[in-house]
Amino acid sequence: MGNIIDSIGNTPLVEITSFHSNPKVRIYAKMEGNNPAGSVKDRAALNMIRSALERGEITKDTKLIEATSGNTGIALAMIAGMYNLSLELVMPSTSTRERMLTMEAFGAKVTLLDTMEICRDYAEEKAATGEYFILNQFSNPDNYKAHIKTTGPEIWRDTEGKITHFVSAMGTTGTIMGNSIFLKDKNPAIQIIGCQPTEESSIPGIRRWPKAYLPKIFDASRIDRVIDISQQDATEKARELTKREGIFSGMSTGGAFHAALQVANEIEEGVIVFISCDRGDRYLSSDLFG
Prior knowledge:
This protein is an alpha/beta fold. It has helices at 41-55, 71-82, 97-105, 116-128, 141-158, 174-186, 231-245, 251-266, and strands spanning 13-16, 25-31, 63-67, 86-92, 109-113, 133-134, 165-169, 191-197, 225-229, 270-276. The chain folds into 2 domains: 4-34 and 150-283, 3-Layer(aba) Sandwich (Rossmann fold); 41-134, Rossmann fold, CATH 3.40.50.1100. It has a 6-stranded mixed β-sheet with strand order 1-2-10-7-8-9. It has a 4-stranded parallel β-sheet with strand order 5-4-3-6, sandwiched between helices. Helix 1 (41-55) packs across helix 2 (71-82), helix 1 packs across helix 5 (141-158) and helix 2 runs parallel beside helix 3. The model has no long low-confidence stretch (mean pLDDT 95). Its EC number is 2.5.1.47.
């Protein structure tokens, strides 16, 4: 028994059964939407806040600020509320209304600006005044360490060490970095595959960062392959996952699944795990399911 924070992690691993016919290749979705705040970002948010408190970097009187495209902000808002911490979240104005309302429901202040890059600059500028503490998921090692502690071990356990390929969208890159570190330590032959949007595509949760904004926690040497995902493919696969597998999730999950299927079609046997990042109800006001 415990509070809501204690239910973060240990999400189900669900097999995909209706998209490919080779019985020697198995595809599993790691269902991160089952976390209490609804996404894989619950893990990083908890580890960033808890670790900062343990190190004494923040106290109950600290004002937190963070730039987010949505999922990290929702997770931070929930966890900050549990710790009675003040939090301002800075988010692109193109984000779905559901995300903003959820953050506010958890008690966070939400500031909307034009682009994610502008949001990041704004948060860092306010933190530089000394009035706010920025968690900075893009450069904070506690982001990826959350997945070394939890996600990676869960995947290794639930596949009985048989995983051959790990597939993840890349945004802050914390999920793919942490899982790569853990899984490669267990078996260096495991292939780590990242997803980024094609040049012309806009996919919430997956980014192709300008060089100046590339997350500092990102280490390209930890990824074996990057697959470019079109907006159309990410959208179609998210819709198909919902209708054919009952996995209700967003476009970043659709993108990761598209990449997982591509890998499945290239290999003769293996166990592929991809991250199902969040829940589809975050996108109902968009045209994803329209």
